[in-house]
Write a structure and sequence with these properties.
The complex is a heterodimer of chains A (123) and B (218).
Chain A (H helix, E strand, L loop, with lengths): L38 E4 L1 H5 L5 H9 L4 E2 H8 L3 H13 L3 E4 L10 H13 L1
Antiparallel strand pairs in A: 1-2, 1-3
Helix pairs in contact in A: 3-4
Chain B lengths: L3 H5 L9 E9 L5 H8 L2 E4 L22 E9 L2 E8 L6 H8 L5 E5 L8 H10 L3 E6 L8 H8 L7 E4 L4 H27 L14 H6 L3
Parallel strand pairs in B: 1-4, 1-5, 5-6, 6-7
Antiparallel strand pairs in B: 2-3, 3-4
The chains are: A mainly alpha (123), B alpha/beta (218).
């Protein structure tokens, strides 16, 4: 999947230590850490809201098509921990919607496993 | 006029799909990147920095963690499968632990010429108690059988051991398919074990099959 409109979101002119973008936070202000495969999608609010910082703006552009936290980090060349905090902040403000995964470790979801199996047969 | 609900709906991308993940591990040069890239719609690499998820503050150690490779396979409009691979657990096992948490299972790639390279990897995988398969990445003439590999790696009989060619998408899909089936089987056994009826507290333990003890009263 290509994102031509958001391909250079790393802001080459912006030189900052990564965690300066989160004001030193390595974890979201509240709530649990987002999983790296959690899918993020920009909401209507995220599309229309003015964002003073470029990183949330880039995330909003990238996530017009749902992307995982790890994919956002790869596209923006930012550490996963930084992206996790930025996305959590944006979710708090309603700018993105986050779809978190089923937790296989806490109770296997056989229906989802069978869907994955069917999907692998088709692709 | 926008209602609160409509303002919060997803943007042009529509409903957000459900994510699932599989972890691909193996020794250096075992073919993890090739495996991942041969089936993924898109393969990416994150910067060489740890996830940092469970730490309160960024620390010096984070700067030395491994890069993370990921491949995305869109299985359906509302289902996405991610393959994740990190070069090695190295000094920072947090990233691997986090990748393992909540995953469907693990593919352990083994190079038959250097089986010893995946001994340490298997030690880690077994600690996660996740379903896993051993995929022997071999594209030359076979000199060992799957049983030879199983014995050399001392993996239990219930763990699938299979040969694959990481360059071939069909071969990689067969490995993923086998892993998911293995996970379904393990899940069914887990459900069986957890839903088995237990005797009530204080109730006398049955020493035989119940219908045998009542039959004699008829």
């Amino acid at each position: 999947m290509d994102h031509p409109e958001a391909s250079p979101p790393s802001h080459p002119g912006r030189l900052l230590r990564p965690y300066a973008l989160t004001r030193g936070r390595a974890r979201p202000s509240h709530g649990t850490d987002l999983e790296i495969e959690a899918l993020v999608s920009t909401t209507v609010i995220g599309e229309t809201m003015h964002m003073p910082a470029p990183e949330p703006h880039s995330i909003a552009l990238l996530c017009r098509e749902p992307l995982s936290v790890a994919e956002i980090a790869a596209h923006m060349k930012l550490p996963l921990g930084v992206v996790r905090v930025l996305v959590a902040d944006m979710a708090d403000q309603g700018m993105v919607e986050v779809h978190r995964p089923s937790q296989f470790g806490t109770g296997p979801d056989v229906t989802l496993l069978e869907r994955v199996l069917d999907g692998l047969r088709r692709v | 006029m926008d209602s609160a609900e409509s303002r919060h709906r997803p943007g042009p991308g529509g409903p957000v799909p459900c994510p699932a993940k599989i972890l691909v591990v193996g020794g250096p040069g075992s073919g993890k990147t090739t495996f991942l890239r041969s089936v993924a719609d898109q393969a990416l690499t994150t910067p060489a920095t740890a996830a940092g998820g469970r730490r309160r503050r960024p620390c010096k150690r984070m700067r030395h963690a491994a890069a993370l490779e990921l491949g995305r396979i869109t299985l359906d409009d509302d289902l996405v499968l991610y393959l994740f691979s990190a070069a090695s657990a190295g000094p920072d096992r947090q990233l691997w632990d986090e990748l393992a948490h909540g995953s469907i299972g693990v593919v352990v790639l083994a190079d038959p010429r250097r089986l010893q390279d995946c001994f340490a990897v298997l030690d880690d995988v077994e600690q996660w108690h996740l379903p896993f398969v051993v995929a022997v990445n071999s594209f030359g003439p076979m000199t060992h059988t799957a049983n030879d590999i199983r014995e050399a790696l001392t993996v239990p009989a219930e763990v699938p051991v299979m040969f694959c060619d990481a360059r071939q998408p069909l071969s990689v899909k067969a490995v993923l398919h086998r892993l998911v089936r293995h996970t379904i089987t393990r899940t069914a056994m887990w459900h069986l074990a957890t839903t088995r009826r237990r005797p009530r507290i204080g109730a006398p333990l049955l020493t035989g099959r119940p219908h045998l003890s009542t039959r004699s009263r008829r």
